[in-house]
UniProtKB/TrEMBL annotation, chain A:
Organism classification: Bacteria, Bacillati, Actinomycetota, Actinomycetes, Micromonosporales
Protein species of origin: Actinoplanes auranticolor
TM region(s), chain numbering: 60-81
Domain of life the protein comes from: Bacteria
Name of this chain's protein: Uncharacterized protein
Keywords: Membrane, Transmembrane, Transmembrane helix
TrEMBL record, chain B:
Keyword Ligase carried by entry: no
Molecular functions (GO terms): DNA binding; sigma factor activity
Protein's UniProt name: DNA-directed RNA polymerase sigma-70 factor
RNA polymerase sigma factor 70 region 4 type domain segment(s): 115-167
Family: Belongs to the sigma-70 factor family. ECF subfamily.
Gene name as annotated: rpoE_1
Gene Ontology CC terms: DNA-directed RNA polymerase complex
GO aspect biological process, one term: DNA-templated transcription initiation
One of the Pfam families matching this protein, by short name: Sigma70_r4_2
RNA polymerase sigma-70 region domain ranges (all copies): 24-87
Keyword field: DNA-binding, DNA-directed RNA polymerase, Sigma factor, Transcription, Transcription regulation
Length: 270, 182
C-alpha cells in the first residue's frame, strides 16, 4: 500500500466518522469536574510519595477499582469463602501450585493474552526471573517476573485464563535492599463469580513472609518465594480501600501498615 | 485576581493542571467515547484527570505528550474495566470525528462511500480498529500510540500496516450496492 493509498484511506475514514459537538470543556459538568479536582489534596494516595522517591518508570497497570466503577455493579457479590457465596472455595492460606499447572497457566497466558496484546514472548517467559504460582480453592494464580516486565495470570473455576495486570521496568533487587517492597501487580479482575483483587510483588532480601490485611482486619497469607510474592482475595467492586501489607523479616521483626495502593504507585525502597 | 489555591497545593501546579484540563478535555472525552458507552465516558474522564492531578509531576510538560499520557491512562482504565467485564472480545470502536474537522454537505456518492467504510470498519477486529483510531483520529505518532498500547513502536507499525490492509480488503470485498449500479 503506497503512502497515497494510506492517506486516501485515512481521509475516507475521517469522512465516514460521526462528528461531535465542539467545546465540551466549557459545559457545566466539565467545569464542575475541574473545580472539584483542584480541591482534592494532591498529597492523597498516589501523590503521598515524596518526589525524591518517585520512580520515573512507566507503570502501565492501574488499580481497577475506579475503572470498574464505570461499568456498573457486579452481579455477584464476592465473599471471603464459605457457603454459597462466590469464590466459596477460596482460602486465606494458599497452597502451592503444581509445577505442571504453573507451566501450563503461564504458557497459556503468554500465548493467549500477553503476546497478542503486549508483544511479550514465550522466550521471555522461558527466561523469566521468577514464575510464582499459588492455588486457593478452585483457582490458580501466578505472576511472571522478567527483567523487562511483570504480569499476573489467573485461572478461574471454569478454567478460563485471565490476565490480571502488567507492569514494565521493575526495580532491581539492589534497589529493594533488605526490607523494601514493590507492588508489581495491583488490579481488580472480574470473573463469572464477581470481582477479585489480585496482587503481586518483589521483596527485599530479608522479607520472608507477607500478610495482606484487609480493611476489616482479616488477614490473607501471601505466597512468598525467593523475594517474590503473590496473593488475591474476593473483593466487591465498591469495596473500601485501605488494604495494607505486613512484611515479616528474617530476624523476626515486622514492617506493618504499608498501604497496598501506595506501593503500587511507587515501591517502598530500603 | 485569582482564587487562593487549596491548602497544600502549590499555585503553579494548579495553573498547570487547569491549562492541561482546558486543552485536553475534549480530546480525552472523545478518546473515551470512541471506546466505551457515552454514559460511562465522563466517569472515566474524571478518573483520568484525577490521576493526572495526583501525578502531575509525571505528566509530560509538552501538551502533545501530555495528551498521549492521558490517553495511555484512559486506555488502561478502560482495558481493566473491559477485562473485568469479560467484554474484551466484544468491544468495537466507534468512529467519532473531532469538532472542526471538515465534513458536511457530502454528495450522495460520498454517502455511499461512508456506508461502505462503516461496514468495512465493523468487520475489523477491535485490535485493528484500535491502531487505526490512534493514528487516524487521535493523531498520535507511532511511538506515542505504541506507548498507549504498551507495545514497541515496531510492533505498532506492523499492526497498523496490517490493519490498513485488512480495511482495504474489506472495502473491496463488500458486495456492490444494487442501488448504485441500477
Amino acid at each position: 500500500m503506497s503512502s497515497n493509498d494510506r492517506r486516501d484511506l485515512d481521509l475516507q475514514l475521517r469522512a465516514a466518522a460521526t462528528p461531535v459537538a465542539p467545546g465540551r470543556v466549557r459545559q457545566t459538568s466539565a467545569q464542575a469536574l475541574l473545580e472539584h479536582i483542584v480541591t482534592v489534596p494532591r498529597t492523597a494516595e498516589g501523590a503521598a510519595v515524596p518526589a525524591a522517591r518517585r520512580s520515573h518508570r512507566t507503570r502501565w497497570a492501574l488499580a481497577g477499582a475506579a475503572a470498574v466503577a464505570v461499568t456498573g455493579a457486579a452481579l455477584v457479590v464476592p465473599g471471603l469463602g464459605g457457603g454459597d457465596q462466590a469464590y466459596a472455595s477460596w482460602t486465606a492460606t494458599p497452597a502451592a501450585l503444581a509445577t505442571g499447572d504453573t507451566r501450563e497457566l503461564s504458557q497459556e497466558c503468554v500465548r493467549e493474552k500477553l503476546q497478542p496484546q503486549y508483544g511479550y514472548t514465550p522466550a521471555e517467559l522461558a527466561a523469566a526471573k521468577m514464575v510464582l504460582g499459588e492455588r486457593r480453592g478452585d483457582y490458580s494464580y501466578l505472576s511472571i517476573a522478567t527483567p523487562r516486565w511483570t504480569a499476573t495470570c489467573f485461572r478461574d473455576k471454569a478454567g478460563d485464563v485471565h490476565q490480571g495486570s502488567i507492569m514494565e521496568a521493575p526495580v532491581t533487587d539492589a534497589a529493594l535492599g533488605r526490607k523494601g517492597v514493590e507492588m508489581q501487580g495491583w488490579s481488580q479482575l472480574k470473573t463469572s463469580e464477581g470481582y477479585a483483587r489480585l496482587m503481586s510483588g518483589h521483596l527485599g532480601s530479608e522479607v520472608v513472609a507477607v500478610d495482606v490485611v484487609l480493611p476489616g482486619g482479616k488477614k490473607v497469607q501471601a505466597t512468598v518465594k525467593d523475594r517474590y510474592f503473590v496473593a488475591w482475595y474476593p473483593e466487591a467492586v465498591d469495596a473500601p480501600g485501605g488494604t495494607t501489607l505486613t512484611l515479616r523479616l528474617a530476624d523476626g521483626s515486622t514492617v506493618a501498615g504499608l498501604a497496598a495502593r501506595d506501593l503500587h504507585e511507587a515501591p517502598e525502597l530500603d | 485576581m485569582t482564587a487562593d489555591p487549596p491548602t497544600g497545593t502549590e499555585p503553579a501546579a494548579e495553573v498547570a493542571f487547569r491549562a492541561l484540563f482546558e486543552a485536553a478535555y475534549d480530546d480525552l472525552l472523545l478518546f473515551v467515547e470512541r471506546r466505551t458507552h457515552a454514559l460511562a465516558a465522563e466517569d472515566v474522564v474524571a478518573e483520568v484527570f484525577l490521576t493526572a492531578w495526583r501525578r502531575l509531576d509525571d505528566v509530560p510538560p509538552d501538551l502533545d505528550q501530555a495528551r498521549a499520557w492521558l490517553f495511555t491512562v484512559a486506555h488502561h482504565l478502560l482495558r481493566n474495566s473491559r477485562r473485568s467485564d469479560h467484554r474484551q472480545q466484544a468491544v468495537a470502536l466507534r468512529i467519532l470525528r473531532e469538532p472542526g474537522a471538515t465534513d458536511s454537505g457530502a454528495p450522495p456518492d460520498d454517502v455511499a462511500a461512508r456506508l461502505d467504510l462503516t461496514r468495512a470498519w465493523a468487520r475489523l477486529s477491535p485490535g485493528d480498529q484500535q491502531v487505526l483510531t490512534l493514528t487516524v483520529f487521535e493523531d498520535l505518532t507511532g511511538p506515542q500510540a505504541a506507548r498507549v498500547l504498551g507495545i514497541s513502536a515496531t510492533a505498532f507499525s506492523l499492526r497498523l500496516l496490517r490493519a490498513r490492509r485488512r480495511l482495504r480488503k474489506h472495502l473491496t470485498a463488500l458486495p456492490t450496492d444494487p442501488g448504485a449500479t441500477a
